[in-house]
Structures are given as structure tokens and as C-alpha cells.
Amino acid sequence: MTETAAQRQIRKLQRAIVDGLEDVKAQDIQVFNTEAITPLFERVIIASGTSNRQTKALAASVRDKVAEAGFAKPRVEGEDNGEWIIVDCGQAVVHVMQPAIRQYYRLEEIWGGKPVRLRKAPPSAAPRAAAEATPAAAPRRRRRVADDAA
After folding, report:
1. What CATH number is given to the structural domain containing 91?
2. 3-state DSSP helix/strand/coil % of the chain, to nearest 5
3. Do the domain assignments include residue 146?
4. Which of 32, 11, 31, 6 lies closest to 21 in space, CA to CA?
């Protein structure tokens, strides 16, 4: 396989993963090129889901899209809990996390300073901006309720 063919395969896999995440309304999708950091995989993709049910659905959607694109069926870890699910797609590793877990571990700091730019833009920036605003408000409400109960 030539270098160009390998790069096309990575882009195809990356697109299948991102499509799977977008189909189930993942929030704050970031793709990092890890070729220079580790020989184990080419991309790390991090996305958020707002509940255990959504993170499980995101992982299942990625698994299905990757298989539909002709790649080997990915291995999945963490589906029992649903707070942090890892989907190992071989050349790419997907971390599907709930916002609180993502903020705590800050994987973006480990895997690179600048995410890869995706070529396919979302249909509208307005719904995505509204969706990104929602998870920030939800934890605050939960904290107030927890504070009131204490």
C-alpha cells in the first residue's frame, strides 16, 4: 500500500467514525493526528454524550459505520458503565465520554494541541452551538440540587 493509499484509508475511517458520531448527535467532536506521537494508531477522536444511553448509542453507531465502510469490526470497552467508552478501530481510537469525565481527564491535552480540521462542515452552525451550550448548563443544575440536598 502506498503512502497516499494509506492516507486515504485513514481519511475514510475517520469520516466513517465522525459520521457515526454525528448521526447520534455527539457533542464537541475533536480529531487528533497522532502519527508523530505513537506508532499504535493514526488518529484519536474524542466526543461527548450527555447520558449513559447516548454514549452507548454513540459507540454502537461508530461500530456500525466503521463496519459498513468495510473495516474490521471495532472492539469496544466501557459499555457496561457508559461514562467513558473506548472504541478501538485499529488505526483510530474513539473516546466517547460524558462531559464531567471529559473535563476531569482532559485527553485533548495529552493527544495534541490542534485538532485535525474536518472537511465536511455540519449543515448548520446554529444547532451545534445550541447543543454545545446544553451540557454546560446541565452539570450546574445538578450541582445546585446536590448542594441544596447537603
Report:
1. 3.30.460.10
2. 50, 20, 30
3. no
4. 31
Domain count, the chain: 1
Q: Which domain holds residue 75?
A: 3-121
Contact between residue 63 and residue 76 where contact means Cβ atoms under 8 Å apart:
yes
Whole-number Å distance between alpha carbons of 142 and 126:
26
94 inside domain: yes
Contact 87, 59 (CB under 8 A): yes
Enter the pTM of the model.
Answer: 0.74
Tell me the pLDDT of the chain (150 aa) as tens digits: 566 888 899 999 999 999 999 999 999 999 999 988 888 999 999 999 999 999 999 999 999 999 999 999 999 999 999 999 999 999 999 999 999 999 999 998 888 766 666 665 445 444 444 444 444 433 433 333 334 443
